[in-house]
Design brief:
The chain is an alpha+beta fold. It is built from five helices and four strands; from the N terminus they run αβββαααβα. The chain has helices at about 1-20, 55-75, 80, 85-105, 120-125; strands at about 25-35, 35-40, 45-50, 115-120. The two termini are about 15 Å apart.
Length: about 130
Amino acid sequence: MMIETEANEKEIEDRVAAWIPDDFDFRVATKRIDGEWFALAVDFDITGKGVTRAAAVRQMAELLGLYLAAYLVDGVEFYGAVRPVPSRMRFRIQMESAVGRLISRLNSSLSLSRENNYILPVSEVAVHARC
């Protein structure tokens, strides 16, 4: 039974990875608030939380993988699963990130200097795809 479950999970993982367009970038914004890290999948409005940046990104990737697997199983095309954060929030993220990069060059301890935007590899999302 355990081997069958692992095989099914691997099949879903492979199907999700193949379902995601090659040119799609999973944009992630991270931010530290009151000692906790948050990772936001900007194109899916899914957030993970953790005590470290890596833990927050890991949780977000797990949630995103489950979300995408559900859409795949339901027969929805990939772009039907995309639901980006509102444009106002995307603009704020871009501005905070730009300011944060400038502040980090000054070795500041302000919270904006501890924010990042980056691209999450498809393999990090697909590996968490389960039904």
